[in-house]
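Treating backbone geometry as a discrete language has practical consequences that deserve illustration. Part of our work consisted of pairing the sequence of a single chain with a tokenised description of its backbone. What the numbers capture is local backbone geometry rather than side-chain detail. For completeness, the protein is quoted in full, as a sequence line and a line of structure tokens:
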Amino acid sequence: MALSRRTAAFLAAAGLLVIAAIIITVVLVRGAQAPHQPAQGTVVVASAQSKASEAAAEAPDGSPEQAAAQYLSEQPTAVWLTPEGDPADQVGERIAQLAVEAREQSARIAVVVYGLPGRDCGGHSAGGLEADAYAEWTDAIGEALRVAADTSPIVLLEPDSLALAPECGDIAERVEQLSTAIQALSADSTWIYVDGGHSDWLPADRMAELIGQVDQASRAHGGRRIRGFVTNVSNFMVTDDEVAYAHDVAAHLDDLHAIIDTSRNGAGSNGEWCNPRGRLVGDPGGTIGDDVVDTNLWVKPPGESDGECNGGPPAGRWWPAGAVELTRDAVPE
């Protein structure tokens, strides 16, 4: 039976509405999906919870210490999660707050997970958790990051843990600990980078061997779970050297990528790693990228001490004089 013109018109209009609804749904779903992998142009959150922000609020008005802290508080920088500062029952709320800030800034969360058993091999940043407590802590972090999936979190997992392992004599233990942490932290929307040392530490083939062990161990839990490795964390090597090193390391691996810490490498390295004098902040995050190096980020927060050396306070504490020195070319006098 033939349809009336009115009925046909009604059905046509209804069909158009259905198609429009489908298109809108697709657009909304795509808009809700996390961005692609980190790349040049990536912006991470500049958190008001940072030690730089606290220092800027507490320093005398108009002082060089306030100017340096204020400048650093405005720079997108990774947030370090430690069990001492963010225990398992509180770290989820910390990440939720970071997610709110990230959405407000149209940025991504970037966190450093730093609580491995035997952390820093007894050095300036010694500490960390026992194995069971570490598993509980990383589970809590992973759960919170999955809730914040729309911010496409970047996780920089346990700096120095792999590059130090040969010296500490605990390679097998480190590989197991890191692969278990990767299982707890991994999600489709989370981009995990393990420790990659730096260009003046382990040879590229040795560093790649260690990274490859963690990659293979974590795959045992079902498919690749890491994006790659991060170099130069808390160090001062110039960017070009780190890019070359990242390419050398990646050449020994199966399609793994790199992030480079440029937070304090503006004047290069003088051979010291613990609060060396005369250093400068480096290029802002998200300014480089190629087929191996996803991008650069500020990973070590400038102004936070490396340890009780060269006049600095304990590791992780805010050091006003250090902040002033690092920003002397960036902050007008």
